[in-house]
Design brief:
With 368 residues, the chain is α/β, with parallel strands linked by helices. It has 3 domains: 90 residues, no CATH class; 161 residues, 3-Layer(aba) Sandwich (Rossmann fold); 76 residues, Beta-grasp domain (Ubiquitin-like (UB roll), Roll). Helix content is 30%, strand content 24%. The strands form 4 sheets. It has a 6-stranded mixed sheet with strand order 2-3-1-4-10-11, with helices on both faces. A 5-stranded mixed sheet has the order 13-12-16-14-15. Strand 10, helix 8 and strand 11 form a beta-alpha-beta unit. Helix 1 packs antiparallel against helix 2, helix 2 runs parallel beside helix 7 and helix 6 packs across helix 7. The longest helix is centred in the first third of the chain and has 19 residues.
């Protein structure tokens, strides 16, 4: 495949190029070329008459979605079976799971969809072992569980991170604070709000030249790298929280476990013995950052059994109304809110009010 050959050539050239001020422009150009080639892999051009690639995608259900990613035979299927009560074929040989197996758990009032994805191998981002379809589903998840064999966690961790990074997934990162806007004329206008250790006007122009962009406004509000600038220009990156699930802890000593637990974002478990599932579910809840809102009909007690579950970045009264039914907002007069998001109990608020977890809301409609 021509794209893969070009990627290999660029990666080889980057590997043998020393990193210093003199080579920064050359490396920036290579990184931009690499990102453009990777984009072709993420969204391959459709070929007339060719059969469509089989997808592993399944319909989204529930309030949030978690994808299980890992090498074959690390315990993903056992974990799904135990958490969700869904049977995902388990065996002592590799590649038991050949398609996406969905399950669902209810936790703290939220319905969370779990997806056991087929095991990925090194080179998955380049299409090996149906890896492209696997990672494409992982891009749609709100949280990724990278399931690792505790006997070889760091080696597998680095390979999987590289595969996901190559497919535009940024794990446990926030989007860089860079404002990028193309324009029709006026050249490249760079505003630097904080001191930069890597980027300057010449390097920014070199990177944008690779994209044939000669007119743009760029504001750097963080100490940004050339990779982060390329991510913003590409505009197709997915920022996903991730938990590293260290499985098979029944096979190591307490001393080894203490060392491994120092890896950030990890939870040690034994899927087979169902050890430490409570810690995994608690961390899952923290990383999903869901907001539960209880409804209160007029003159009645709040319904604490079936909360309306929102994402923490979309939890205004307007989002709350849309989640129940889109027609509610046009009849909204105001809302009464009890909870930590307001000073008074209750307090009258409008559609832009941001709700907190476990607030109680009563909708007041206009009188027609």
């Amino acid at each position: 495949m021509d794209v893969l050959r070009k990627i290999e050539e660029i990666e080889a050239e980057m590997a043998k190029t020393q990193k210093n001020k003199a080579t920064s422009a050359h490396l920036g150009t290579l990184k931009a070329k690499l990102a453009k080639l990777r984009r072709e892999l993420i969204t391959p051009k459709s070929q007339g008459g060719s059969a469509k690639e089989e997808s592993f995608e399944v319909a989204k259900t529930g309030d949030s979605r978690i994808g299980f990613v890992g090498f074959p035979s690390v315990g993903k299927s056992t974990l799904l079976t135990n958490l969700a009560g869904v049977y995902s074929e388990v065996a002592a040989y590799e590649f038991t799971t050949l398609t996406t197996v969905p399950g669902c758990i209810k936790y703290k009032g939220a319905k969370i969809q779990l997806l056991d994805l087929p095991g990925i191998i090194e080179g998955a981002k380049d299409g090996k072992g149906r890896g492209r379809q696997v990672i494409a589903v992982a891009r749609t998840a709100n949280l990724i569980f990278i399931v690792l064999d505790v006997l070889k966690p760091l080696g597998h961790k680095q390979i999987i991170e590289k595969e996901l990074e190559g497919f535009g997934i940024r794990l446990n990162k926030t989007p860089p604070n860079i404002i990028f806007r193309k324009k029709d004329k006026g050249g490249i206008n760079l505003q630097i709000m904080v001191p930069q250790s890597e980027l300057d006007l010449d390097l920014v122009k070199t990177i944008l030249l690779e994209y044939r962009i000669s007119n743009a406004d760029i504001t750097l509000r963080c100490d940004a790298t050339s990779d982060e600038l390329i991510d913003v220009v590409e505009g197709n990156r997915t920022y996903v929280p991730c938990i590293y699930v260290l499985n098979k802890i029944d096979q190591i000593s307490i001393e080894e476990l203490d060392i491994i637990c120092k890896i950030p974002h990890t939870v040690p478990i034994s899927a087979h013995h169902k050890w430490n599932y409570d810690s995994l579910l608690e961390k899952m809840w923290d990383y999903l950052a869901l907001v539960r809102i209880y409804t209160k009909p007029k003159g009645q007690l709040p319904d604490y059994e079936s909360p309306v579950v929102l994402q923490n970045k979309k939890c205004t009264i307007e989002d709350f109304c849309d989640k129940i039914h889109r027609s509610i907002l046009k009849d909204l007069k105001h809302a009464l809110v009890w909870g930590t998001s307001v000073k008074h109990q209750p307090q009258r608020v409008g559609k832009d009010h941001v709700l907190h977890d476990e607030d109680v809301v009563q909708i007041v409609k206009r009188v027609k």
